[in-house]
């Protein structure tokens, strides 16, 4: 079965009316606003590391807090909003049915923005409030946990009272999108497999990470669950949504079916089987039992093999149409993201080995890896989707092709430099630490790398500025779009 709507669409259905375009636009604007905030946080943190902190002395804007705003705003503000917006486009068009309820969609949109803003406020203000004597007194009188601001769980820093709300929100998202999917007759296209799995997995992952280590499982076991949570957020939330969208958009844009439907299912089931076993690779060389650590190592390497089948499938789809890589901008974004995906998984298969871990554990190698996957892959795919959809949502052609190109090259060049720079820095740091040199040696030695990271980050941010200017120009002055 093919995702090409020209082949699957029933003539009597007006696909334009299936999609709530203002909602998709609102999701995209929210996503881009959080991306700007997150990037500001990243730049601030990068400035701090080279000792040029421009906000020095302002406690609630201290880099430690901004770091959490940086990561949370990017994951829950940018990526989640951009994915939700795109799903509101893709699922009704794929299933040829609207979502369960438009009002529910709007409710979820506003509830989600509240959750993200409350999280950011909790991160920035929380620790300051917790230090206030009157807050401590009030909290003890009313038995309110002091983690009312933020929780000490990586990627789960959302204040504890938000967790049940977020979980409810995720359940509503699943119900809203599942309704059209389950009513779709016939064999299901692979994108829908991925989407359905993502709805179930994200709910379970969020519940596991935000409740078990906090309230149920103590000590090292909580660490093991936290590792699983961090990794599953990438592997069972953004990865299935990302690949599901690639399986949807690439055939539409290339106007040809995906190379092998069979291989796409190998990729899906391989991900489903191996990904949840990997979490503990975040905590190698810890007191977590070694058989679990070894299991995580092996399943991480296995995922690289699964990823290779997916990459072969997409390479097969592009085969004979190489020109489209250069001429079709969304396709360029998508395939660049896929190359980075392959590289990041290859890197993962290496760094997960205990030999490698000895060298790079706790170093900037990991930060390089994190940016490569989050920006180099998922952000690239979402930028590609937005580059394709904004003209359709605004009913305008892009005002400036040059700005589109600048956005692509600044982003692709910036992330290539940033990730290579940090990966290299990590190797140096590993050797400095292994040689038991004073800590200062590694800090001073890292400085040139951190300056380069700052410059690369500024390039990536400049790319986003080009994108925003282009959107504004397009909305105001672009010519009407012929193609939808
Ligand atoms: C303006 C561009 C950016 C700059 C300058 C920047 C800088 C930074 C810095 C300094 C850190 C903290 C590193 C440390 O603690 O040693 C960080 C962490 C992180 N950033 Fe960025 N960042 C940028 C954009 C992004 C984007 C767009 C994403 C995702 C799409 C992202 C994802 C992450 C992640 C996942 C981490 C956590 C890494 C870890 O804990 O290993 N960053 N970033």
Quick synopsis:
This protein is mostly helical. It has 17 helices and no strands.
List keywords for this structure.
484 residues, mainly alpha, Cytochrome C Oxidase, Chain A, 3 domains, disordered N terminus, binds protoporphyrin IX containing FE
> Any idea of the CATH class of the largest domain?
Mainly Alpha
Structural class given helices, strands, pairing?
A: mainly alpha
Report the span from N to C terminus.
22 Å
> Treating each run of at least 4 consecutive H or I residues as one helix, how many helices?
17
Alpha carbon gyration radius:
22 Å
Question: Which CATH architecture of the largest domain?
Answer: Up-down Bundle
The number of E-state strands comes to 0
What count of domains describes the coordinates? 3
CATH T-level topology of the largest domain:
Cytochrome C Oxidase, Chain A
Q: How helix-rich are the residues, as a percent range?
A: over 70%
The rough form would be described as: globular
Bound molecules: protoporphyrin IX containing FE
Q: Which homologous superfamily in CATH is the superfamily of the largest domain?
A: Cytochrome c oxidase-like, subunit I domain
